[in-house]
Amino acid sequence: MENQRSILKNTDISLSLRFGFLGLGMGGSSIAAACADISTNVQNNRFPYSALLVNTNRIDLDKIDTINPNTQKMIIGSGKGAGRNIKLGEQMYQEDAEIIGEAVQKQFSNTDFVWIVVGLGGGTGTGSVIEAIRTMMENGFKKRFGLIMTLPRSSEGQTVLNNALQRLQKINGAMTALGSIILVDNQKLYSHFSKNQPTATVSEYLSYSNNFIAETLHELNIVTSSFNPVGENHFDVSEFENLIKTPGVLHFARFTSKASELDSAQSISHAGRLKDQINEGVLSEGYDLSDATRLAVSILANKPTANRLFNFEFVNAIESEVNELAPFANEKPVAHYVYQNKDISEVYFYAVFAGLKLPKRVGELVQEGKRLARMVEEKQSNEVDPFADMESLSPSNEQQDDDVSFDDLFGDKKTKTADDKKPAKDDDFARMFGN
Ligand SMILES: Nc1nc2c(ncn2[C@@H]2O[C@H](COP(=O)(O)OP(=O)(O)OP(=O)(O)O)[C@@H](O)[C@H]2O)c(=O)[nH]1
Ligand SMILES: [Mg+2]
């Protein structure tokens, strides 16, 4: 993996798109800040990305150190956080939606594409993500934004799981009208990190994961525009743009092979190695890649290796593997590039699949949520209630309503009227989310 990074660092890179990052909540802000802190040695473009960090918790927001002087921070709501309450997070965002919209316009005026970034599971980021979609659509970024969302680890508890799943369900229903969605499986990154660094602390893990996400996205953004294409397929910037604007989940894989091990096309496809590596991915896994509507594969080699490797047999072998993985994709260029760096001889593979459905991991989280709910139920039914005879003192089994008012509890019962709802401003948004 280090080599992979060094090839990008040692090369005169150029960017495909100028990305902006709207970070919401602590996880979202931390990841967005790391993304905007990516620096290049390109003249007059040391920090190619920008970020706006929004949180309801002042301490968490202050705590984020940024290198990029253009990154802006914005506190909304009480300054005390949303305490894992998504209704509260959403409400605080709504109250300040107008000034967030203004800040978005200002911060991202030179931006091609904005990523809304949230850590799914908390109150602020998860609560405000749908409203942030509204902000993008109503402030000039329709069809120019995507979502980056982390999936919680299994051990984060029922509230986090429920929050994450609730929002995922809403977003899943509207997915066909949105840009691409990148899912970062915290469990996957955590397992990888803890295996390699068993003595590290959790905060070291978090900063590792955030930098890892930032570098992966940057790599995705530069790999197609920084090297010389050879052969008939050049996957260019406009195709990259189409790819990340494709509705559905985006899956990204990359891996390296020693040039000396690649003596023929067969050695690549040998024992399904290419397929395994593509399936494994970088940020999340468990997709049905046959759902892909678009994909791109880029292969980088130095000159001597390229001369030897990039022949008909090789191209056919890769293309047929890719076709088996994603037979229904409408566009599937396999592009070859030559790099000039003489110190490296590896061959680099990059694969991006767009238009996917949610991965298996989400199904696992649903099962985990159900398991936790069952455990709570069992515990409750096993408990001897000392107040069993005093019916009026035991809490009712009705689902808890966070929206309950004093009047609901003690005053005249009043049912909610349509006027209580915020009027829909944008037809498209209203159609998608029903508000
Ligand atoms: N990869 C990564 N994930 C994070 C990080 N911080 C939090 N998360 C994930 O994001 C989820 C939501 O946590 P937060 O972002 O702290 O929640 P919040 O949006 O600030 O919401 P409240 O604190 O409840 O107002 C957590 O359950 C974690 O799974 C981070 O720095 N990196
Ligand atoms: Mg928070």
TrEMBL record:
GO molecular function, one term: GTP binding
Segments of skewed composition (Basic and acidic residues): 410-435
Region (Disordered): 377-435
A GO CC term attached to the entry: cell division site
Gene Ontology biological-process annotations: cell division
Residue stretches making up the Tubulin/FtsZ GTPase domain: 18-230
One Pfam family named in its UniProt record: Tubulin
Record keywords, A-Z: GTP-binding, Nucleotide-binding, Plasmid
This protein's name: Plasmid replication protein
Organism for this UniProt entry: Planococcus lenghuensis
